[in-house]
Design goal:
- The structure is a single chain.
- The chain is of the alpha/beta class.
- The chain is built from six helices and nine strands.
- A seven-stranded mixed β-sheet has the order 5-4-1-6-8-7-9, sandwiched between helices.
- Helix 2 packs across helix 4.
- The N and C termini lie far apart (32 Å).
């Protein structure tokens, strides 16, 4: 994969209802949650775009931009479409977007590189990571060729990444892990406590 053709995108526009506050702004070991993923990906791409609907704090870098969802309440698919629209509106050259959640503190560039090394981009326009029989729909690589179909389907009422990806045809790249789950995501306060314990025991 030519990484120069890919825009890194962190989806931080969710309401974090189960957590009770914006997860991306929660501190884990004195570091903002969103900065864990940014630290791993920001130097892998020419640019990284954050989708967030409220003012947020994040690590400073000349390579990071931020924008809002083009329309709120459309879930992760709306965030993906917002990133694609941002590319078009700003006349960027990217052909793909690579999406990441803002609440996975154990994901590293090692997994990212493995993902790209095992993609054959002529086989599909959509790729997701899979590990231990679980498909991680936010860790995805999406072709800009999907923009019109995605916009049409969203306006028809499709909101679920899982269902939409299945209808399009998605390829998965399996990534194994032995110790810490790099895809562990923090949805609740209990998950945060688990993450703190994992870090202490690592």
């Amino acid at each position: 994969m030519d990484l120069n053709n890919i825009l890194g995108v962190v989806l931080a526009g969710g309401k974090s209802q189960r957590f009770g506050q914006d997860k991306s702004q929660v501190k884990l070991h004195n570091k903002l949650m969103i900065d864990y993923i940014l630290k791993e990906i920001v130097n892998e791409f020419e640019e990284t775009l954050i989708i967030a609907n409220e003012p947020i704090k994040f690590m400073r870098s000349e390579n990071i931009s931020i924008t809002k969802d083009f329309k709120k309440g459309l879930g992760p698919l709306g965030g993906v479409l917002s990133a694609m629209k941002w590319i078009k509106e700003n006349n960027k050259k990217y052909k793909w977007i690579s999406t990441f959640p803002s609440d996975t503190p154990f994901f590293t560039k090692k997994e990212l590189k493995y993902f790209y090394e095992n993609i054959r981009h002529n086989e599909s326009k959509l790729f997701f990571i899979k590990s231990k029989e679980t498909r991680h729909n936010i860790f995805g690589l999406w072709s800009l060729d999907l923009i019109d179909q995605l916009e049409s389907d969203i306006y028809k009422g499709e909101r679920k990444v899982e269902l939409w990806a299945n209808s399009i045809g998605v390829k998965t790249i399996n990534i194994d892990y032995k110790k810490i789950d790099p895809f562990f995501n923090i949805n609740t306060k209990e998950d945060l406590e688990k993450a703190i314990k994992i870090m202490k025991n690592d």
